[in-house]
Each structure stands twice: as C-alpha cells, then as structure tokens.
Amino acid sequence: MSEAIVVENLVKKYGDFEAVKGVSFKVKRGEIFAFLGPNGAGKTTTVHVLTTLLKLTSGKAIVAGHDVVEEPMEVRKRIGIVFQDSSLDRDLTAWENMYIHGRIYGLKGNELREKIERLLKFVELWEFKDKPVKTFSGGMQRRLEIARSLLHEPEVLFLDEPTIGLDPQTRAHIWDYIRAMKEEHNMTIFLTTHYMDEAEMLADRIAIIDHGKIIAEGTAEELKKLVGNDVIYLKLEAPEELKCLEGGFIRGCKVLPDGRVALEVENAAEALPGLFELANERGIRILEVTYHRPTLNDVFLHLTGREIRDESPENPMAAFVRMRMRR
Ligand SMILES: Nc1ncnc2c1ncn2[C@@H]1O[C@H](COP(=O)(O)OP(=O)(O)OP(=O)(O)O)[C@@H](O)[C@H]1O
C-alpha cells in the first residue's frame, strides 16, 4: 500500500463540542505532511486519534496499514510520537530515558545499546548522555524526545508542534533532523504546526485546518496559487510610461497612490530579467524594485479573513506562557 495514513470523515466530539468535524486526507509513504492551523483548530485532537490515545466519534482512520479502532496495538507498534508537552522523566539521564523506552518496546542487549548510541549521536546529545534531563534546555529535551521516538524504528512518526517555544537556531536544527529522517529512512512524518515557515520549509504537502475542518490542501506552491500572482513593485522615473511595460508576462498592473507601479506576474524571480530588458528597450528608468510572493499567511487570510499567527518564534515568551497554561 502506498498510503501510510488514510483518514475518512473523521469526527471527534468532546461532549457536545465537535473539535474535529469530518476531516479526510491521505498521507503517502515517505512523505512529510503538515497540519497547519491556529490554536484550537483540532490538530492535537487529530494526532491523538491517529495515535490511538483518543477514540474517534465517527469516521475511519488507517495508520501504517491498520485501523486505529480495530487494531490499536498494531498501530502503536508501528508509530512514534513526540508530544507537544515533554513526556521525559526529568530525574533520569538521557541514556536512562532511552533505555527504558527501548525495553518497553522489547529491545535489549547490544542491539539496544547500539541504537541508543546511534540516535543520541544523531541528535547531538551523546556527550550529555549521563546528565539528568532536568538540566537540559527545551531544545535538548525536544531532541531527546525525537531520538527516543525513533528507537523502535517507526514507520510513521507523529510530531505535535515539534518546535513550539524554541529559539530560531534550535528550530532550524530540528528541521534538519526531520529532513534527515525522511531522506535516510524514508519515514512518513505527520506534523502539526501553527508556524507557516515550518510547514513551508518541511512539508511535501500541507492541509490547512481551521475550526475542525480542512479548508485547503496541497503543496505550499499550490496553496499560494489560491491567493494569486506574485507582485512586483517598481519605482519608475516616469510612472506615466507604465503602459509601455505591458509585456506578455505581465498579468495586470496598477499605479499605487504612492506612485509606485504594481505588476502582477506568475513568478516574480523569473519575470525580473525580462522586465529589465523591456524597460531598457523602451528607455524607461527603473529606480527601485521590490517584490512580494504570497505567503501561507496570505493563503490563510484569503480563506478565512483572519491571520493564522497569534505568536511567532521571535516571541517565544508567548509560546512559553501558552504551554504553561495548558498544564
Ligand atoms: N479534553 C477536551 N475537552 C473539551 N474540549 C477540548 C478538549 N481538548 C481540546 N478541546 C477543544 O477542542 C478544540 C481543538 O483542540 P486541539 O487541542 O485539538 O487544537 P489544536 O489545533 O491542537 O490547538 P493547540 O495547538 O492549541 O492544541 C479546541 O477548541 C479545544 O478547546
């Protein structure tokens, strides 16, 4: 089977409240698939259903070839999970956390020791293996959780907000590990995030979720196409000569109140050389060029009329406060 996850019409209610309202999607083997949405959209609830921690209300979910309701143990053997909140034992060392997890999954002896060494080296924690987890930074803990989740070589790895509250440098490190897991082990990765850059940098495909529903799905490029074209802004010496710039690749143009000319093109980077050539031929002097490509934030805004972000990695304090409040 080429699909690692198949979800059909999944509904999850908490009492009368429908947190997930009939979502359907498929994730191919070896793919990184991101659930992108604001807080409270239903991302964690979906992960908990797919990892058999919560029972679905209706619908169907197959993970690694097994039904989450009918064969939860088969699913559990084949998946790894990194939760939003740490599930490490803070009083134990990194090595001990790994060892206990490995034993739970039936690993032992040299095989287990070798795996622990390889994985702790993979996340660059080998030199800290004998230190208690309570002395680790947030980023080190997240790296240890990733290493731990890989011990039993899962087919599908679930990462719930893998970089929430981490500084930009640590986030970039974690993105590298996630890419390496896909490339070196052809692992299927399902991640949730409310960071648009994270979805864009990592995911082969993205489902945007809002109020328990998937409102759009596709590659980052496909999603951005929903918003429209790239826009190039030009400051010309003589803006009235704008009409001279209506070349074949220009899909629309207008003069902005500040005098700049806004040109719509399919791909700004590709259009720029042609644009300079055209201006040169017509003797038009371009004083300044900037361009804007639609972002996933523009896509969310376009679809919902709201901004996705309530916090950014540049403002980790907001994330920290939210994590504390969840406890
Ligand atoms: N145990 C629960 N009982 C009642 N309502 C819940 C419960 N857990 C979550 N909810 C509600 O379900 C909705 C979806 O929550 P969920 O945690 O899945 O969202 P999310 O997209 O993962 O956001 P976050 O990243 O903040 O967790 C929210 O409105 C939340 O308040």
UniProtKB/TrEMBL annotation:
Species of the source: Thermococcus litoralis (strain ATCC 51850 / DSM 5473 / JCM 8560 / NS-C)
Ranges where the ABC transporter domain occurs: 5-236
PANTHER family hit by this protein: ANTIBIOTIC RESISTANCE ABC TRANSPORTER ATP-BINDING PROTEIN (PTHR43582:SF4), LINEARMYCIN RESISTANCE ATP-BINDING PROTEIN LNRL (PTHR43582)
Membrane-spanning segments: none
CDD domains named among the record's database cross-references: ABC_DrrA
Biological processes, Gene Ontology terms: daunorubicin transport; doxorubicin transport
Main location: membrane
Highest taxon above the source species: Archaea
GO molecular function: ATP binding; ATP hydrolysis activity
Homology family: Belongs to the ABC transporter superfamily. Drug exporter-1 (DrugE1) (TC 3.A.1.105) family.
Membrane topology: Peripheral membrane protein
Any Pfam family hit: DrrA1-3_C
Gene Ontology CC terms, in alphabetical order: plasma membrane
Alphabetized PROSITE patterns for the sequence: ABC_TRANSPORTER_1, ABC_TRANSPORTER_2
Subcellular location: Cell membrane
Descriptive protein name: ABC transporter ATP-binding protein
Keywords, comma-separated and alphabetical: ATP-binding, Cell membrane, Membrane, Nucleotide-binding, Translocase, Transport
Keyword Transcription: no
